[in-house]
Specification:
This protein is mainly alpha-helical and 112 residues long. The protein has four helices and two strands, in the order ααββαα. A two-stranded antiparallel sheet has the order 1-2. It is rod-shaped.
Length: 112
């Protein structure tokens, strides 16, 4: 299910893969014939095709919601991280210890 997928904390690439798969289903359903003649019997699957496409579209919406929530939280965390380090780097060092602190902050930012 989608909840199990989201609990694994997937990357954006994995979310994209899921979205592409569901979009492919919608595209295939749109190009599928809704009626088929077999000898003297006409089989109509229009309603089934629409239901499958609608279901795939609902999955796309839900996957997108999960992706949005995940990315939004990452963005908020990154914003907080940048703000914190920006404040630490704005200090004008007056002593050797303060200079070491600012250089350590710069080093830490580079490693992340």
């Amino acid at each position: 299910t989608l909840e199990k997928f989201a609990q694994k904390n997937p990357s954006c690439v994995k979310y994209d893969k899921q979205l592409v798969e569901k979009r492919k289903i919608v595209t295939e359903m749109a190009s599928m014939p809704t009626e088929k003649d077999l000898d003297f019997v006409r089989i109509s699957v229009g309603q089934l095709v629409r239901e499958v496409a609608d279901h795939a579209n609902r999955w796309i919406v839900e996957i997108s919601r999960h992706l949005h929530a995940s990315v939004r939280q990452n963005l908020l965390d990154m914003n907080e991280y940048i703000f914190e380090f920006s404040n630490n780097m704005d200090q004008e060092p007056d002593t050797l210890e303060e200079l070491k602190y600012v250089l350590n902050v710069i080093s830490e930012v580079r490693t992340k």
